[in-house]
Amino acid sequence: MLINIFRGIFFVIVLAVLFVNVSSTEIAGKADSREFWFIVWSSLGMFFFTFFLDIFTPKKSLAGLAGVFFGLLVGIFFSWALSPVLDMANEIYFLRLSETAISASKLIMGICICFFVISIVMRTKDDVRFVIPYIEFAKQTKGLRPMVLDTSAIIDGRIADLYRSKLFDAPLVVPRFVLNELQLISDSSDKLKRNRGRRGLDILKEMQLNPDIEIKIDDSPLPESEDVKGVDQKLVVFTKIFNGRLATTDYNLTKVAQVRQVDVLNINDLASSMKAVALPGEGMTVKIIKAGEEADQGIGYLEDGTMVVVEGARNKIGRDLEISITSSLQTSAGKMIFGKFEKFAALNNNPKASS
What we know:
Elements: H1 2-22, H2 25-28, H3 34-55, H4 65-92, H5 99-124, E1 130-132, E2 135-137, E3 147-149, H6 151-156, H7 158-164, E4 172-175, H8 176-186, H9 191-209, E5 215-218, H10 231-242, E6 245-248, H11 251-259, E7 264-266, H12 267-273, E8 283-291, E9 297-301, E10 307-311, E11 320-331, E12 334-344, H13 351-354
Parallel strand pairs: 3-4, 3-6, 4-5, 6-7, 10-12
Antiparallel strand pairs: 1-2, 8-9, 8-11, 9-10, 11-12
Helix pairs in contact: 1-3, 1-5, 3-5, 4-5, 8-9
């Protein structure tokens, strides 16, 4: 939207400058002269060349006022540097143009150059690295640090709920290679993977449509990651360069990011920290679903998916039991509660159950 408004302003300015110059007393009285048509055709030529060059330049991200100001300075410098070219052309090719015609052409050329430079800066400000021999000024992130999403966090979907609840307000960033991986999963021949991929795309679309969630797909080229193989490694490099935080549910990716000194938010860790604390000695009711790995162990699950390992419950599959908690274990992969069988729950407590 902003770039289109800027193009409109550019068009109006060029027409205004052209009209003022061709309407001047010196030029208007020579409507059939070379100077008149030189100003008209050179102005229109530079305008359309610059405009179409801008249209067909690959578009990137939108920039702010600082980018416009920087582009204006660079445009003015190049306009000043190229101005003598018109004077040289007038002398070398004996065009015999007046000072008014030369000045008008220089003005139009300056406007076109400034527009083109500002347009490039506005669309590439977030990706530009200004390089001086032996010195590189890396991109700095202002304000809230963005949250970079990986495929597992998008498919998981809980990140969307967290942002809808306004628990987080940092901008979300999805690198293009993550979106490509999500698309590959959606096109998988495996039905389970295909459903997971499509769920991730639906969640991503839902977040984009939510006005309260600031999310963007980042197409920034990363020269540092050209030789990096694997989406996880690219994610770590991207997050480090972007000065962001990585959001994931992948336990191994969490450890790799921590080793690389990248801030990471494991959604499983966050969910575990918000669960009710299970203290030893407390009681709870759980339904035994299957047998455990160890002898005489039964396994059940709470409503939030927490695994409960119960001693003495291997032969009580399908029953609701009252247990006493002996310990709990919290990891990035989830939370586990250990307990021992006390009695059958009142719901299933009958003579057969107690026999």
